Amino acid sequence: MASGYGMNGGPSRCFPFWQEVLACYVVNSNEEDSSGKKKCAPILEDYYECLHHKKEAARVQALQAAYRKAEAEGGYKTNPPTAGQIRNLGILGKEEDSRAVLTSK
Predict the structure, then answer these.
(1) Of 38, 40, 53, 76, which has the most beta carbons under 10 Å away?
(2) In terms of pTM, does the model score above 0.85?
């Protein structure tokens, strides 16, 4: 956790995020005025995501639900995309392949 030591003795996976949180608090707040902590909210959110993976889990559940829905409707079984089309998704200069795969539903 925030101690900096992982399960195998090295730095933990979230320790760099914790260091960013502490650095943000040191720079943006002091004993008299703690209103600067609001600037650290996005960094703290990243640290919590590293610890708990809630956003990642929600995204995986949404993707699985969409996949199951498409599978139940017979989505890609009638005209599945080729491996080459899937590999080209999101590559610059291959927009026509991406468009063909995404609109073939």
Answers:
(1) 40
(2) no
3-class state of residue 67 by DSSP = helix
Query: What are the helix (H) ranges across 29-72?
Result: 41-52, 54-72
Question: How far apart, in whole angstroms, are the C-alpha atoms of residue 15 and residue 70?
Answer: 39
What is the sign of the dihedral through the CA atoms of 61, 64, 69 and 72?
A: negative
Angle at 39 between CA 48 and CA 37, to 5 degrees: 80
**Residue ranges in the chain whose pLDDT is less than 50:** 1
Half-sphere exposure at residue 105, Cβ-oriented, CA atoms within 13 angstroms: 11
Tens of pLDDT, residue by residue over 62-86, are 989 988 888 888 766 666 777 776 7
3-state secondary structure of 50: helix
Residue 73 tokens read as: 């409707």
